[in-house]
Amino acid sequence: TIVAEQLPDKSNYYSFRYGPIVLAAKTGQEDMTGLFADDSRGGHIAHGTLLPLSEMPLLVSDKEDITSKIKPVPGKPLTFLLSSLYSTQYPSELEFIPFFRLHESRYIIYLPQTTTEGLASLHEQIKREEQERIKLDSKTIDKVACGEQQPESDHFIQFEESNAGSFENIHWREAKDWFSYQMRNKEKKAKVVYVKYLASDKPSIYEISVNGEKLQNLSIDNKPESGIQFILLDIPQSERTKDILDIKFTANKEHTTPKIVEVRLLENK
User: Fold this and answer.
1) Does CATH number 2.60.120.260 belong to domain 140-266?
2) Contact, 62 vs 116, CB < 8 A?
3) Which of 44, 140, 189, 220 is buried deepest, with most CB atoms within 10 A?
4) Which among 159, 35, 54 has a CA at the least distance from the CA of 103?
5) Domain map (residue ranges) of the chain
6) What is the C-alpha separation between 166 and 207, in angstroms, rounded?
7) Tell me: the pLDDT tens digits for 79-138?
């Protein structure tokens, strides 16, 4: 039996299983340089050309009808054809096979779902979010994904009374006392600290500093439905010429810091 499985965060992305077998579709073998893992440090991280999310096929179907869009291919065991796709780059049907059989190719497991009525707005939303991500990446000098072991280790994390966790697959770190990262500014172009965090219904009073220089004393009291938010803070002129910027988050009094998701050094706002 084919099962459509939604992402745990209940967003509109679905994958397909045949019993316990996860299915995936090949999408092309163009420009694969840098996309093969090796046993070097960080060798599991893709360094090749990434394709825009705005070109990703959209599954056009009501949620309750998703599994009706994928059918077995006669004469080809464990092979299925998914129809009702919209894309400017891919055909309206894609062949799905067991993920463990898929090698040396770009592929798709999760597909964004929308209805016919919502197709235009979802496509525009994906395109807009992709453009915003590219713009942010283009001015990023260094970044750390909070709560993830390797990125935090690479940035020499230190802390007292701090813990990490995840919420709907989003990793974060918070502290009752403090935590810090050593971020690289070798070309001395960093002017702004970007901090992304999970909003909360509990007030958070904390302090952010760069090399001991306090940036801002923040009091945040957001509602949970506001989701992920970010702030931009100017780096003091005295610290912009230094190779290493020690970014420190310190809780105040009886409060904890917010759940910090990501920290970046930016060239500008």
Assistant:
1) yes
2) no
3) 220
4) 35
5) 2-137, 140-266
6) 22
7) 999 999 988 778 889 999 999 999 888 899 999 998 888 877 877 877 888 888 889 999
